[in-house]
Amino acid sequence: MTVYTLKIDGRDVAGSEGQSIMDVAEENGIDIPGLCHLPGIHDRGACRLCVVKIGGSPRLAAACVTRIAEGMDVVAHDEELEEYRRAATEMMFLERNHVCAVCVANNHCELQELSADLGMTHFELPRISPTVDVDLSHKLFGLDHNRCILCLRCVRVCDEIEGAHVWDVMHRGLETRIQADMGVDWGDSATCTSCGKCVQVCPTGALFEKGRPVAAGTRDERPFLPWLRVHQEERGL
Amino acid sequence: MPVLHAKPAPPSDDKRWKIVETRMRRMGDRPYALIEALHAAQEAFGYLDESALNYVGDTLGVPHSRVYGVATFYSYFTLKPQGEHTCVVCTGTACYINGAKEILAGIERGLGVKPKQTTPDGKLSILTARCLGACSLAPAVIVDGAVMGKIGAAELVAQLEAM
Amino acid sequence: MSEQPAAARPVRHRAAVATPAGETRASAYVCEAASCMSAQAHDITVNLAAQCAAAGLTDVMVKRVGCLGLCAAGPLVEIPQTGELFAQVKPGDLGGLITALKSVKPGATPKPQGPFFEKQLRVATENMGRVDPESLEDYIGRGGYEALQRVLADMTSTEVREVVSQSGLRGRGGAGYPTALKWTTVAKAEGKQKYVICNADEGDPGAFMDRSVLESDPFRILEGMAIAAFAVHATEGYIYCRAEYPLAVARLRTAIRLAQRAGFLGANIADTSFTFDVQVRLGAGAFVCGEETALIASVEGKRGTPRPRPPYPAVEGLYGCPTLINNVETFANVPAILRKGADWYASIGLGKSRGTKVFALAGRIVNTGLVEVPMGMTLREIIYDIGGGIIDGRPFKAVQTGGPSGGCIPADYLDSPVSYETLIDLGSFMGSGGMIVMDDTSCMVDVARYFQDFCRDESCGKCVPCRVGTTQLWMLLDKICRGQASLADLDQLERLAKVVQKMSLCGLGQGAPNPIFSTLRYFRDEYLAHIVDKRCPAGVCEIVRLPDARPLDAQPTEVPA
Amino acid sequence: MSRPRIATVWLDGCSGCHMSLIDLDERILDIFGRADLVYGPLVDVKVFPENVDVCLVEGAVSSVDDLERIKTVRERTKTLIAFGDCAVTSNVPGMRNPIGVEPLLKRAYLENVDINPMIPNRIVPQLLPTSQPVNRFVDVDIFLPGCPPHADLIYTLLDDLLSGRTPSVAGARFGR
Questions:
Q1: In terms of C-beta density within 10 A (0-12 exposed, 13-18 middle, 19 or more buried), how is residue D13 classed?
Q2: What is the CATH number of domain B85-162?
Q3: Residues A165, B63: contact at Cβ < 8 Å?
Q4: Which CATH number fits domain A3-77: 3.10.20.740, 3.40.50.10330, 3.40.30.120, 3.40.50.2000?
Q5: Is the Cβ pair A172, C475 closer than 8 Å?
Q6: Most exposed: A95, A176, B98, C123, by fewest CB within 10 Å?
Q7: Residue C463 to residue A47, Cβ atoms within 8 A
Q8: Contact with chain A for residue D94, Cβ under 8 A
Q9: Residue ranges of the domains in chain C?
């Protein structure tokens, strides 16, 4: 396997051919934020939080989907990037109706955590305040679209790990929604195996286990996806 | 490798399913035939109902949620039956600066329907198009397949009301 | 927007409706491209043939042709022997045409046709309005397939790429990437199976170049694609065409069938070992599918969402194989370059922009229609000499180029030459070639809002900055248009536009703020008029005046009884 | 030099942020040993005074009354602090925004009421179409998010301000 050497934020690091900038950064303890990224499932470069600068190019690249190359010079943190990341995080908050205080994920939410890491204290722009549904039809789990950031981890884990492909997205643009089967209520899905993987990977409180009080402040730990637990621990969740 | 699965029977013995089935078979009943199959079904039936989506998905081995995702992504596909008559208003740039906005406003005032809506009596559906490429006729509308160019809102509403 | 413009539903009919047995003394070319078709052009063809027969004009040919260009005056009929163009012809009133056809002298020479035609230089559209789009013989009669045959007989793929490289041809889809460079990447990419895709998902509102080319000269695209396939070692091709263009799709399908039958597509083309076949794939109404990776996803039957690049489609494209994607006009230039030589093509143009460019003129302009001009022609020549100036002689305000990713260029720059570079310097973009002319009846803030509305409607929803940002930008512009905004909102607009431009995944989001940037650059005073004076200078926007000074969202809600 | 004048305002919120302020415990003596508390739910003053140096604003702007008050506050205050999530993001009061005022009032005052259901149209101030954070209407100098902000954060911020240091809200975050 070919080994490449490169620089991330001025540090000399090495990785093997085919690895992403995100992978190599993680291995070297350099934290690049990302909400759609999750080890073990395919990356899609959609949340744009992991954008980095490469070799002075004016075009930003998503670290999760950009493969490393020999001699690459990556800037993962500077004032400009932090500002863009704050802006993207703000957009996620404003898109739906996030109310941290009364959310099941309060205190173990990756979006909330990220906003704190970025030192966000407020929003410059108005909320969009769409009217969206809460689906409580499943006997074990719930889906609150108010808190969905469309990272599509649930879609990918259901397809790639569980192999059920219950979830997909419907419509487009701001109307994009997670949906089960033919847009049916989750409880009526013929394909759902109730494995709970989607709930486990949800970075926010959009997918949640019923019966857990808001005040719990933790997630139920399950024995599947051990790599996932590691990832969450690394992020202090 | 194509996933091996039993080919489902068409939802009914309506002959139009043959057209859909043939279009899929010509493409080897492979998942990439999905959009073509949806086109075929919509051409045949006018819109895509759940049985059509299920049938196409099951034939091509595409999960239902993905079929639904594709069918709702593209604005050309419609999951609801259209009105008896259709009026497509072009909202391309040339039509926009030549008064498409007034036409849509006029329709809403006169007939009480917005784009993508059908009148309660099921008579008329109002649609919009990004650009019909008929910029020389701006503002252009298509009523039941016939293009009408350089038309005013009042004139159009009168025509639609007469239908 | 489930548009189903059945208007242009194709009618199957014979190639030339009247063909003289002997010498043709006079001909009538009836434009049967979409715009004229929607004005009953086909009835003209049929009626004219019948009336010629009735009048005993056995030496007159009546045939349908593709776009004659001057769409504003359609339906059009041309008598090529004299150069006479009949505008706004009525199917029920063809007496004038019959008289003109009768009076054509044998061996007549065409008289000048005026600046609309004479200032143009037709390369990609050289057959437009000359050939019957559904006749392979007609195409061959105009030099069609000469290039492909020569390529297959005498050239290596490297030589073909070399010629394209020397011609200086660049992608006509908008960004202007050197065509030969793309071809070479695909040719050199590893992979047994390679694909060629023609991007005919012309989505820019107000642009109809590709539509006209496809409707008027479909064989040319097939020839261009075959040459490209030879040059990059591909064996399969797709044309991804908007479903909203049923006439273009029908003509492409006919052309493919005829070309296959004649051995210009399929196995062993022109009795060589070269094999290449083409299929049409229909788009389904998603502007974002004009983006290469989204287009590929759509051809694969998926949601048309783009993916980050690299890897570029040239390396990992359709079904993971190296894939060449060029747009319609790019392919349309290829046969001419191979036939007439790289030097000839490279001799046309300005700076790094060689050759010609097709533009669709629309908006508040007299001669709405399709034109092809050498790169480097000034905007003034295009808009005033060819386009005939502004309707009703009103003052020119701006020309919008590049579609939703483009910009508005004001009157001060009318004398700028048109090339990829100059348009970018002016804060706009070549785009696919739409030119929307605006006069003083257009409000530039409203125009910016219009394009933002378009972008938010067409955003695929995959990445956050585009999905949310375009809506937020639209909300800010809407606020300004309604006279509800403050100067702080203007700052927000600029800040957010920058974020959306830098952070978005694909060209749609990255380009979405361009109309804002360019209107702010040239028409900031109009923004300020809305914000400070609460007035729309063009009188377009509905300024919301409220009884008290509070903005809309601070108005009390009436309590229901 | 006169002592700094601090005010607190309670708009559309649950008063939890004020409770957190009281949670300063003995440190409250430190703060108000150095400054005067001139207005707020904790003191009996009817009119928002002039020349306020620092004002902590709890709650979102939801009604006509809130809007008038926040404008007055802004006019008379040097440093305006959006105090807690409701003031910063509209938080829980903002949950009504997707619903709309009319269905909201109907639900609250008609559908869920057994005895004499009616929508009040006097005494209760008229609602704005949506409940918005303070910075949608007036300029805010410092944002202190949290539901509620921890007493330590409040102390640090007020201490910084009273000591003339650059005020810090480090560690403040939405929710919790």
A1: buried
A2: 3.40.30.10
A3: yes
A4: 3.10.20.740
A5: no
A6: C123
A7: yes
A8: yes
A9: 16-113, 136-346, 349-439, 444-531
Provide the shortest C-alpha distance from residue B124 to chain A (in Å): 24
> Do the Cβ atoms of A179 and B66 come within 8 Å?
no
Inter-CA distances, C447 with A154, B131, C481, C526, Å: 39, 16, 10, 11
For residues C146 and A130, what is the distance between their CA atoms, to the nearest angstrom? Answer: 59
Q: Do B65 and A182 touch (CB under 8 A)?
A: yes
Q: Looking at the partner chain, which of C550, C553, C560 has a beta carbon nearest the beta carbon of D130?
A: C553
Domain ranges of chain B: 16-73, 85-162
CATH number for region C444-531:
1.20.1440.230
Tallying the residues shown for chain B, one arrives at: 163
ipTM value, please give it. 0.94
Contact D169 A121 (CB under 8 A): yes
Hey, where are the domains in chain A? 3-77, 83-234
Q: Which residues does A contribute to its contact with D (CB < 8 Å)?
A: 93, 97, 99-103, 106-107, 109, 112, 115-116, 119-124, 126-127, 129-132
Domain C16-113: state its class: alpha beta
Q: List chains adjacent to chain C, taking adjacency as at least 3 C-beta pairs closer than 8 Å.
A: A, B, D
Q: Does B50 touch chain A (CB under 8 A)?
A: yes
d(CA C474, CA C304) in angstroms, rounded, equals 23
C349-439 to CATH, choices 3.10.20.600, 2.40.290.10, 3.30.70.270, 3.40.50.150: 3.10.20.600
Q: Return the residue matching tokens 């040339």.
A: B94
CB–CB of D99 and A131 under 8 A? yes
What is the token pair recorded at D29?
């003596």
User: Backbone phi, then psi, for D29, in 5-degree steps?
Assistant: -70, -35
Report the C-alpha gap between B138 and C365 in whole angstroms. Answer: 11
Residues of chain D that touch chain C, judged by Cβ-Cβ distance less than 8 Å? 64, 67, 101-102, 105-106, 119-121, 126-130, 132, 136-137
Tell me whether residues A172 and B72 touch, CB distance under 8 A: yes
Class for domain D5-96+128-163, per CATH?
A: alpha beta
| Per-residue pLDDT tens digits of chain D, which is 176 residues long | 589 999 999 999 999 999 999 999 999 999 999 999 999 999 999 999 999 999 999 999 999 999 999 999 999 999 999 999 999 999 999 999 999 999 999 999 999 899 989 988 788 899 999 999 999 999 999 999 999 999 999 999 999 999 999 999 999 999 98
Q: Which tokens in the block code for residue C282? A: 């229909």
pTM to 2 decimal places: 0.94
Nearest CA in chain C to B92: C205
Chain B residue with CA closest to A176: the answer is B73
Q: What is the pLDDT of residue C6?
A: 38
Are the C-beta atoms of residues A174 and C456 closer than 8 Å to each other?
yes
